[in-house]
Amino acid sequence: MPTVSRRDLLLPAEPGQRALARELYALAAEQPIISPHGHVDPALLAEDRPFPDPARLLIVPDHYLTRMLLSQGVPPADLGVPTIDGSPAETDGRIIWRRFAAHWHLFRGTPSRLWLEQTFRTVFGVDTALSPATADAIYDELAARLAEPEFRPRALFERFGIEVLATTESPLDDLAQHAKLAADGWGGPGGRVVTTFRPDDVVDMEFDDWSANVDRLAEVSGEDTGTYAGYLAALRQRRAAFVAAGATSSDHGHPTARTLALSHAEAAALYDRGRRGLADGADAEAFRAHMLLEFARMSLDDGLVMQLHPGAVRNHNRGLYARHGRDVGGDVPQATEYVHGLAPLLDAYGNDPRLRVVLYTLDEDTFTRELAPLAGGYAALYLGAPWWFLDSPESLRRFRETVTETAGFYNTAGFVDDTRAFCSIPVRHDVARRIDAGFLARLVAEHRLPADEAAETIVDLAYRLPKRVFKFGARA
């Protein structure tokens, strides 16, 4: 069987388009990485300690990997995922690695395999195919690399060509790690590592310990959250602290895209019911929906870009949640409606160029029907990249095919890696750049776009658009 050069990974198979795509990809590949949304722990870079063993770096925290093995009967605890119910979890990194390698065949054809193989190859220089027979050798080779100074987090940050990395924190976070980064010349406004304001745990009444979290919000902000007015003041105070720490955006992970315009009295009544433990599911949804409008109003004042990540049914696997807690692979997508859901917010602020809302979806059916027409019709709205269950080569291609005709390229916001896996960041951006190169090459080959404009566009998609939309550098 003929082989394809790795330089042509994900590029079109047709020779003419492949040649065009190579040229376009070369332009994108030399651009710095802008990573405006992700979940890397800021302590990783603030403390700059050596990474742990290969299993704890690459397998244990990656729920893309552990959920697949769970679907085949391998409990996450056997892969080292910590438990919250007191049950034991494997702690031997080599055993975890061997167990994972024994199930490597489960990832055939998945983006997880693509990312991990490219991480082995491009980050660590390990080109041996993973299998049960090679597991120990690869583990040892990776462990040896991790012991070298060149593989400390800050050194890798430099080698990856990352210009800006945004982490994601709760308003309850004291931002101490970001303060350390700022003191070291890595953080603060305009810094290389900045924070993002994620208020879900103090906005969503269905979040674990919501009322206690609101009490904690009062402590960290110095505002009285006993009233709705005090609650809003506390959120404004924390947003100001995040802006001072370098934040340029907020992030909202609501179950739906619903927005709702309530009077102050109506919102205060909802808030009071929640604080007294009397709110039901409908109240919680209404409060979340209203708070998106409140946050839009705050964004007009402090300039934070709003990111909306709706559509995930959190903790659908209740057994997994009971044993391991949140964010370990128990979430699933659901159908999400945007046209009517976003109407109150867009009626109020959709034509105001001071507001930027970057909208994501887990519901691919909405690309053509809802999202592209919305982004193509409102000044405030941009489309975020395919995210989470859709951050795969095929979905990235379909995204460009389905939204470009209506929204164009410039109502999109560039790629986001949305990852906790630090070492996969350059790999994920590389995949997106290769897909965009292939799409643009096809437009050139079909005489739908001049080659010089395609060359300008690929640099915009890879670098200039995310930098501008997320206000990195000069606030714009």
From TrEMBL:
Transmembrane segments: none annotated. It holds the Pfam family UxaC. InterPro entries: Metal_Hydrolase (IPR032466), Uronate_isomerase (IPR003766). Coiled coil: none annotated. Pathway: Carbohydrate metabolism; pentose and glucuronate interconversion. Keywords: Isomerase. It comes from the Bacteria. The keyword Isomerase applies. One of its GO terms (molecular function) is glucuronate isomerase activity. GO terms for biological process: D-galacturonate catabolic process; D-glucuronate catabolic process. It catalyses: D-glucuronate = D-fructuronate; aldehydo-D-galacturonate = keto-D-tagaturonate. Its EC number is 5.3.1.12. Belongs to the metallo-dependent hydrolases superfamily. Uronate isomerase family. This is Uronate isomerase. The gene is uxaC.
